[in-house]
Amino acid sequence: MARQPSTSDRDRPAITEAPVVRLAPPSLRGVLRIALILVGCAIALYLLWRVRTVVRLVGISLFLALALVPVVDSLDRHRRVPRAVIILAVFVVLIATVAVIGAVVVPSMVKDVGRLSHDAPQYARDLRTNSTFRHYDNRYHISAKLVQDARRLPQSLGHLAGPLKDVTVSAFSFIGQLVTVLALTFLLILHGREYVGMAVSLTGPREARYRRLVREIEQAVAKYVLGNIAISGLATIATWIVLSILGVPYALSLGFVVGFFDLLPLVGATLGAIVVALATLTVHFPVATLVWVAFIIVWQRFEDYVMQPMVYGRALHVNPLVTIVAVLAGAELLGILGALIAIPTAAAIQIILTDWWSSRAAARAPTAAAERSATAG
């Protein structure tokens, strides 16, 4: 007679055998596939290295195109002229602006720097009339060091212009490369959406997703470039007004210095503020310097918490650690130009990774729900 299972036997959980994992040697087909993938990646990297100059020019053209597309679109909606004519008009305005800055601002700044270097001893004597400054100057020889550094300003200006010149020469070593960049930018603005549409149409069911991704990247880069230029322009004007009120010489030139440094992320505004603070030492020390320091602190907070959120919106909320790494890597690769394009590049990468992670989580959600329902059953 068969033994009936008791109540204790029925309540006892069933013992399941643990799955056995057996390691099998890789197949010849798998090894060949991995080897072919590695060889293909090596060949692709080698080809990219050989055409690195072309890739750099295409990257600059793409960056300029993304920055100018909103301007061209805005003019195209309000003007009944061909889009190509609008693009050419925008190019003419940009080239004229650069020419005016080069012909008016740069010579004036060089002249002001030379005059400041020549008048440095007189400024040092004026500083020593202040008893507080004279006390510390006798101990630390501040005025002598300032005069020595001021004497080297013209030479230092040449050294500071060196990296910018190197970047410019490396990016546009010949007029032909400059024309190439302008031509590529023109074509990308004129037919860029058609090119993107043809490429995205090849993705099949994911076409809508990739179109949205491209649109988000375009908006992020455009907002950053235009917003950065606008904020730097306002910083230039504000610095010029404050220094003019304080009676600081060369106020306009110093305003352009602050505006230029303000283009650089993270440390640019601080570097420009230090340069101006040194110039304020020659005017009503220490009142002018304290007023300038107070102003720049308030202005930077105004930029960080009011202007940047208003101009950039939510398109460029890049992690601070990623920002620092991106700026350092960009500066190492392309100098000042690399530092300028580092943040929008990091923002584009962040948008792509966020979309990839969201799609992956959405794909895993039904599987997880099925597993929970099976466990509950």
Tell me the series of helices and strands, N- to C-terminal: HHHHHHHHHHHHHH
In round numbers, the mean pLDDT is 75
Cα-to-Cα separation, first versus last residue: 34 Å
Outline:
elongated
Low-confidence stretches: 163-172
- Determine Rg (CA atoms, Å): 30 Å
Beta strand %: under 5%
Class from secondary-structure proportions: mainly alpha
Tally of separate helices? 14
Number of strands: 0
User: What percent of the residues sit in helical stretches (DSSP H or I)?
Assistant: over 70%
The figure for the number of domains is 1
Largest sheet: none
Question: Could you characterize what this model shows?
Answer:
This protein is an all-alpha fold. The chain has one domain (51-360). 83% of the residues lie in helices and 0% in strands. The protein is built from 14 helices and no strands. It has helices at 7-11, 28-50, 52-78, 83-127, 131-140, 142-151, 153-171, 175-200, 207-246, 251-263, 268-280, 287-312, 320-334, 336-376. The longest helix is centred in the first third of the chain and has 45 residues, at 83-127. It starts with 6 loop residues before the first helix and ends with a helix. Residues 163-172 have low confidence and may be disordered.
Key descriptive features of the protein:
377 residues, single chain, mainly alpha
Brief write-up:
The chain has helices spanning 7-11, 28-50, 52-78, 83-127, 131-140, 142-151, 153-171, 175-200, 207-246, 251-263, 268-280, 287-312, 320-334, 336-376.
